[in-house]
Structure formats: structure tokens, C-alpha cells
């Protein structure tokens, strides 16, 4: 739903890199290269950012 502020496994702060990561991926940049340049080196942090699905806009439609 919302981008995790910290990695679920190691606790490193990663939420601040998500927007820049998505901008680069939308420009067709290699996700692996983008994460490396942003300083996200650990596999667990990379997994958390790479596999995140933004669902907040879909859920907000059903707000009563």
C-alpha cells in the first residue's frame, strides 16, 4: 500500500529512495543500476523496493 519506511528484514531506512527509484525506472533505466546508484546495496532492501506495488490509489476509491 504505502512505501515501507524501513526494510522489513534489516531495518535500514529506504523509504526516501523510492520516488527517485521509480522516476529512473519509468525512464527505462536498469533497476539494478538505479538501486546501486541510490546506495541500496543489501539484497533485502533491494527486494523491498523492487517488489513494492503502489495500491493506495486503488484503495482510496473505496473510502466510505
From TrEMBL:
Gene Ontology terms: cellular component: cytoplasm; DNA-directed RNA polymerase complex
Protein's cellular compartments: Cytoplasm
Biological process (GO), any one: DNA-templated transcription
Co-factor remark: Binds 1 zinc ion.
Residues holding Zn(2+): 7, 10, 44-45
Stored InterPro entries: RNA_pol_su_RPB10, RNA_pol_suN_Zn-BS, RPABC5/Rpb10
PROSITE patterns hit by this protein: RNA_POL_N_8KD
One GO MF term: DNA-directed RNA polymerase activity
Catalytic reaction list: RNA(n) + a ribonucleoside 5'-triphosphate = RNA(n+1) + diphosphate
EC number in record: 2.7.7.6
One Pfam family here: RNA_pol_N
Entry cofactors: Zn(2+)
Superkingdom, taxonomy of origin: Archaea
Sorted UniProt keywords: Cytoplasm, DNA-directed RNA polymerase, Metal-binding, Nucleotidyltransferase, Transcription, Transferase, Zinc
Record text on subunit structure and interactions: Part of the RNA polymerase complex.
Record function comment: DNA-dependent RNA polymerase (RNAP) catalyzes the transcription of DNA into RNA using the four ribonucleoside triphosphates as substrates.
Family label: Belongs to the archaeal Rpo10/eukaryotic RPB10 RNA polymerase subunit family.
Protein known as: DNA-directed RNA polymerase subunit Rpo10
Amino acid at each position: 500500500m504505502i512505501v515501507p519506511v524501513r526494510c522489513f528484514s534489516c531495518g535500514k531506512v529506504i523509504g526516501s529512495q523510492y520516488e527517485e527509484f521509480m522516476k529512473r525506472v519509468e525512464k527505462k533505466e536498469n533497476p539494478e543500476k538505479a538501486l546501486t546508484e541510490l546506495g541500496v546495496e543489501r539484497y533485502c532492501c533491494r527486494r523491498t523496493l523492487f517488489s513494492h506495488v503502489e495500491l493506495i490509489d486503488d484503495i482510496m476509491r473505496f473510502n466510505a
